[in-house]
Structure formats: C-alpha cells, structure tokens
Design brief:
By secondary structure, this protein is mainly alpha-helical. Helix content is 65%, strand content 0%. The protein has a domain of 74 residues. One of its GO terms (molecular function) is RNA polymerase II cis-regulatory region sequence-specific DNA binding.
Length: 114
C-alpha cells in the first residue's frame, strides 16, 4: 500500500538510506516548525503586553483630558464672573509691568475660589 514501508527483512540498502534521509528531513522539519511556533507565541505575548500598556496609558490620558476640561470650565466661569462685575478684559489695556499681588483689590469675585 502507498505510504507504508516494506518489512525490514525485505528492505534493500538503498531503501534504508532513503528512509534515513526521510526521517532526518522529518526531524529537521519538526524542529523548524517548533521554532516557528515558539517565535509566534513570543510575538503574540509581546503584542498582548504592549496592548495592555497602551490601554492603561490611554485610560490615564483620558483622565488627564477630563481633569483639564474641568479646569478649563472652572477658569472660564471665574473669567465670566470677573467680566460680569468689571467688564471685558479684552477692552482693558494690558499692564506694562507684571501685576503685583492684590492688583485687583476692589474685586471680591475671586475670593470665593477654592
């Protein structure tokens, strides 16, 4: 039948050599396949670790964006409160020197800030 080997007593020396070649090739191929599987597993593990790191970093960045948006809303509210009492900052001339502490002593709208 095809694919089966003759009984050892009926093998010729050339058949024995071809069997040896066949099994040597099979061993070589099996080792190559194992190396390939191991390399693929290693690469998959590295990708999974990288993905987990990126997901964690993404979550941290989303939290940072949320905190910055909250701070922006708070700052806009403070500015709107100041401008409702003292007029727009855009219409006021810019000071020539940096403002000193207490530059707006008449303003009490900023006293309520946390």
């Amino acid at each position: 039948t095809p694919g089966t080997l003759p009984a050892p007593s009926t093998r010729t020396p050339s058949m024995s050599r071809s069997d040896d070649k066949y099994w040597a090739r099979r061993r070589k191929n099996n080792m190559a396949a194992k190396r390939s599987r191991d390399a693929r597993r290693l690469k998959e593990n590295q990708i999974a670790i990288r993905a987990a790191f990126l997901e964690k970093e993404n979550s941290a960045l989303r939290q940072e964006v949320s905190a910055l948006r909250k701070e922006l809303r708070r700052t806009k509210n403070v500015l709107a409160k100041y401008e409702s009492q003292h007029g727009s900052l855009a219409s006021q001339p810019l000071p020539q020197t940096p403002p000193a502490a207490g530059v707006f002593p008449q303003c009490t709208c900023l006293d309520t800030l946390p």
